[in-house]
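Let us work through a complete example step by step.
Step 1: write down the sequence.
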Amino acid sequence: MKIQSKNTTTMKRTFLVIGSVLAGLVLAYLIIANVSQRLAVYKETDTVAIDSSEFQAPPPPKILYGIVVDSMTVEKRVIKRNENLSEILSKYNISPQTIYEISKIPRDSFNVRRLQSRKPYTIIHENDSLKTARAFIYHPNPIDFVMLKFDDIVRVHNGKNKVDTIVEVASGIIETSLYNSIMDSGGSPMLVNELADVYAWEIDFFGLQKGDAFKIIYERFEVNGQDAGMGKILGSWFRHMKKPFYAVQYDQGEGKEYFDGEGNSLRKTFLKAPLRFSRISSRFSYSRMHPVLKIRRPHTGVDYAAPKGTPVVAVGDGIVILAAYKGGGGNSVKVRHNGNYTTGYLHLSRYGKGIKKGAQVMQGQVIGYVGSTGLSTGPHLDFRFWKNGKPVNPLKIDPPSANPIKADHMDSYSKIKDAMIRKLDDIPVTGIQDIS
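Step 2: predict the structure and record it as tokens.
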């Protein structure tokens, strides 16, 4: 019985030890789990408490025309019909005295009288009830702008917007007119005029035929994604009466001109004057006192005083479109040199041999002789020049150069020409089977 009691006591002690160990393990587990949870909470709380955005740099200020406009209002408007600068600025707390000061700004910097209706302008003003203007920006065209900045004094600044140059192509076949064909190809009226100028000495655009075709590589400008007009034609191909005409822009130190595949200039030279041994007695003017009528009227030509009978020559190749007595101009001759340019010779005493309407004349050919017919006070030649039907001052005409590519530029030109011609040849023209 004693042995049995002793064994029982031993077993109880064993169970107590095992239980204590298990209880210790459970307690340790609970302590560790609690500490881990607290550490996790601590870490999570610590992470949320630190905001990384507090350490980021603030966004840069918004600047427009050199002015920080974050706290200001920017308005874009259009000048209304008959609206003047005074009316615009008075709405933005600009005093009459300041407006008067603006009117005194030299016109070559800012001319208040040249603000045109329907042109856009921008006003930058304070964001309060007075709306005091800090700047007025006028946009005469998409590229240029004039800014009046209102500080202690009025400052004026002429500037240009950032311009992006985009190279585009146009091509087409002439069905009715060059204008319609270029417009149908996505071009503009300005592109029509530019192409006519390029070939002004090679192609008579009054004589275009159905089936003539063109390819053009040209520059177009954009400002802030908006169309801002076109630049220059870089290269072109024109097929007229089944004959191809290439034009490649190149500058050999005398300004940009157009040359053909052989390096010849596409422009022919005008003579600087239609007669020799003369002096200018009257210049181009839109308000000249007429020597006979004694009233002011336009004189859109240049008078050369010379003895009666002095030979008068054509300044360029062309076709006579008038050889007749013409009112105050007396005996007159008009020569059309191409689709763009026409010259006139007035007050002649008589005509040159063979000069009549429809006659072809060569540069330097005698077309008449100085006289005093019509409204004239003495022998002289009244020389006129028209471009696209509008009179221009003959003395300000830049005579087209007929200089071919110089020897020292030929290698450079050949590389540019070959690359341009390859690009032009790769441009498709729908409906043309043989474009050579």
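Step 3: interpret the result. Confidence is low (pLDDT under 50) at residues 1-6, 41-47.
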